[in-house]
Specification:
single chain; Dipeptide-binding Protein, domain 1; Dipeptide-binding Protein, domain 3; 2 domains; disordered N terminus
């Protein structure tokens, strides 16, 4: 089947969502269409004319990954920043469409296992060199590990070969049919032979300038960008991992924009701030290490699931905003999301206590929740969860750690009991959300293992019938829920505050911040 520029743009909409959802009740929002929290003033975002130029300062709660290699990025926080620097053959937009970027056209074979791309004519790297098929071949072969046998991104293990029959064409052959693979081709295109940790040269609307660890990251507008140019000349991301200091810097004018705030933080702001409201497009949960006692016992995990009162958590964090989830899928994946799983474990403390007693824990037990200290919503969630667990005799010790420690000890080292974090879909596909729970996934930091799950996942990825694939992805979510792989909570409400006349922030159906659309007003 032939996909032109128009049909590429519509492709991802068929995978994800075909209509806008309403603010924090279940989808994305933006400044112009989404009402802010009632207690926070919000100016008319279309009433002031944009100004070209200016230096934008954005507050973020964590430093980026030690490696800024776009093919090895671990944290969503790093990807949301570097979204502005790197681009793939295709690129997502705010509506969930997958639009042409480095490529102008793609043809997907009827068998669903061959993708033929035509490169765009006018794409330049940040060093001024034009993008060639050699660059694309090098980039994607590197991600797929064709030379090493070790893919840098899990989804690229599906790649069998990459060919460049002429100077405008790239042909990607998969081992098995997988029409969702198109969304994986948002993977960054970098110069042939380059070391992205040293050069960090992309094709996006901003180019990387510098990074001072634990202090800032600086990007500058790329004047040779092939697409719509950015408004601002420079973006400085200031790293402030203390929640109170972050708000004080915003109130004092040292910051122009801060995302991922709680309702309590927004209430501290005065009248001179615009607040945009959306969702974070991730699954917040108490993620359990399924390899350690007592969480290697499914009945224990199920008991804890009954002890979670999601509504109380959402009331505390965001005055009821947010969307409850019951498995590892968030609502922006409209046709895959299973809202009925939310009620699989209705809050029932007595049932939770009985289940614990049945498996030898009549008096409960002690557990530790390790939380990255720089993410206030997750820390506050841990505090509510700890209170809720008291009702079933479980005593929770909240251990806050810095982000680097969380990455090394929890995510990479898997040396933990439980943690609270949000997990997103890096490639905007249902398979990206669910692959991490397969037994052999390098991203399976919860150590979940189920032969049936692995079998169904392989069937789902290879399936080319849309209705059948939807059912298979639903089955995978049900397996995770019934096994209580994790204690699922919500897709968090995302509140973005802007001062100093800043406007234009838009939400995406994945965890990114697109600074090219943000502007100062006259």
């Amino acid at each position: 089947m032939r996909h032109t520029k128009r049909t590429i743009a519509l492709f991802l909409a068929t995978l994800m969502m075909t209509a806008a959802l309403s603010a924090c009740s279940g989808g994305k929002g933006n400044e112009t269409s989404t009402q802010p929290p009632a207690e926070t003033p919000n100016a008319d975002n279309n009433s002031a004319e944009p100004v070209m130029g200016g230096d934008l300062t954005v507050g973020i709660a964590q430093d980026l990954d030690d490696s800024l290699d776009p093919h090895k990025m671990v944290s969503a926080g790093t990807r949301e920043v570097m979204f502005n620097v790197f681009e793939g053959l295709v690129k997502p937009d705010t509506a969930g469409n997958l639009n042409p970027a480095v490529a102008s056209d793609v043809e997907i074979s009827e068998t669903g296992d061959t993708f033929t791309f035509t490169l765009r004519d006018d794409v330049l790297f940040h060093n001024g060199n034009p993008v060639t098929v050699k660059d694309v071949n090098y980039s994607l072969s590197r991600v797929a590990g064709l030379d090493t046998g070790k893919p840098l991104i899990d989804e690229f293990s599906a790649v069998e070969s990459i060919d460049t029959p002429d100077d405008k064409t790239v042909v990607i052959k998969l081992k098995e049919p997988n029409i969702e693979f198109l969304a994986s081709l948002t993977a960054a295109i970098i110069p042939d032979g380059s070391d992205p940790t040293a050069d960090m040269i992309g094709t996006g609307p901003f180019k990387f300038v510098s990074r001072s660890p634990q202090d800032n990251i600086i990007l500058e507008k790329f004047d040779g960008y092939w697409g719509t140019p950015a408004y601002v000349d420079k973006v400085t991301y200031k790293i402030i991992d203390n929640a109170e200091a972050l708000i004080m810097s915003l109130k004092g004018g040292a910051l122009d924009l801060v995302a991922h705030l709680t309702s309590a933080q927004v209430k501290e702001l005065g009248d001179n701030f615009t607040v945009a409201e959306g969702t974070m497009n991730l699954v917040q949960a108490v993620y359990l290490n399924n390899n350690v006692e007592p969480f290697n016992n499914m009945k224990v995990r199920q008991a804890l699931s009954y002890a979670i009162d999601r509504n109380a958590i959402m009331d505390y964090l965001a005055d009821g905003r947010g969307t409850a989830v019951g498995s590892s899928m968030y609502p922006a994946f409209k046709k895959y999301f299973r809202p009925e799983l939310v009620d699989h474990y209705k809050y029932d403390a007595e049932k939770a206590k009985q289940l614990l007693a049945d498996v030898g824990y009549p008096e409960g037990f002690d557990m530790t929740i390790t939380v990255p200290s720089n993410y206030k919503p997750h820390v506050e969630t841990a505090e509510v969860v700890a209170q809720q667990m008291k009702a079933i005799g479980v005593t929770v010790d909240i251990q806050t750690v810095d982000w680097e420690t969380w990455l090394s000890e929890v995510y990479q080292g898997r040396n933990y009991q439980s943690t609270i974090i949000g997990v997103d879909a890096s490639t905007m596909t249902a398979s990206a959300m669910l692959k991490r729970f397969t037994s052999d996934s390098g991203s399976n930091f919860v150590n979940f293992s189920d032969p049936e799950y692995d079998k169904v996942f392989k069937e789902a990825v290879a399936c080319t019938d849309d209705a059948e694939q939807i059912e298979l992805y639903g089955e995978l979510q049900t397996i995770l829920t019934k096994n209580a792989a994790n204690l699922y909570i919500q897709d968090l409400c995302d509140l973005v505050a802007m001062g100093n006349g800043v406007k234009g922030y838009e939400f995406y159906p994945l965890y990114v911040m697109d600074m090219s659309k943000v502007y100062f007003t006259k």
